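User: quick one, fold this
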Amino acid sequence: MLPIVGIGAGLVSALLFTVVITGSPLALLLSYVAPLPVFIAALGWNHRAGLVAVAAGTLAVTVVLKLSLGLAFAIGAALPAWWIAYLALLARGDDQGNSEWYPLGRLLVWIAAVATLVTVGGALAISTDFETYHRVMTHGLRLVLTGGEGIGPVVRLPSGVDAGELAARLAALVPAAAGASFVPMIVANLWLAAKAVQLSGRLPRPWPFIPSTRLPAQAVAGLVGGILLSFAGGFVGLAGAALAGALIAAFGLAGLAAVHELSRGKAWRTPTLFAVYLALVIMLITVFPFLALLGIADALIDLRRRKPPASPAA
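Assistant:
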């Protein structure tokens, strides 16, 4: 049964990954959920089914397209899904026979680490020479800004702004933005897969109380380290920027969880949550850093320590 489930999940995942080559908006959206079948196989059966899915999907993409795309599928979608699902189902028992499941905060740190590795791997896939990578990224962004070669609409830049210089500055921000964007994508796939598996009755882990998610204090040191590394230049600096972006996204999600938990039972809960989510939709770039700061503060001083522990059924 495990090989059949794994092979089927791997082939579906490979199909979702490869449709992006059509270039349509729907195909791009489908490519974001490429890890979902691997997540479902690993969570609903076990991590070995997830590994079979990784192997089957990688082989399919390699045979149908080429080896480089097969490796991109494995590193960028399948293996991260398998590893995160494996961690999510880790548990240890105590003397009373109770199980302590892998904490959500540490799982979120691992998701940030995986997002960093995927970002660095994507950059190395473009070129192993940093100057060449930066030149390719700058050229691509310049085409987007100017509408050259039929790529996207022409962006109306203010007078006096040079498209080439702006593209070079934006290229330096791409690793942090990519690392940050991978985190919610992986989290969304994990949540969807876990919910689907739970509804089927196959999820071994009890559904956790998600608002209790809090990153460990060590993650703050990781964020500081990533920021410092980002000034190093080259691929080391790129890795630092990707790590910083990924951890900022993770802290932002933890800050959002803190808002949910700290507002429980308060009269202002509904208008506050409505305002926060509306602000995220309208001005994400402005609001999300404040949530990240809240997540950092919560990791350092535990803003919820005076609250009684929440029931999983809450």
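User: anything notable?
Assistant: The CA atoms of residues 105 and 213 lie 5 Å apart.
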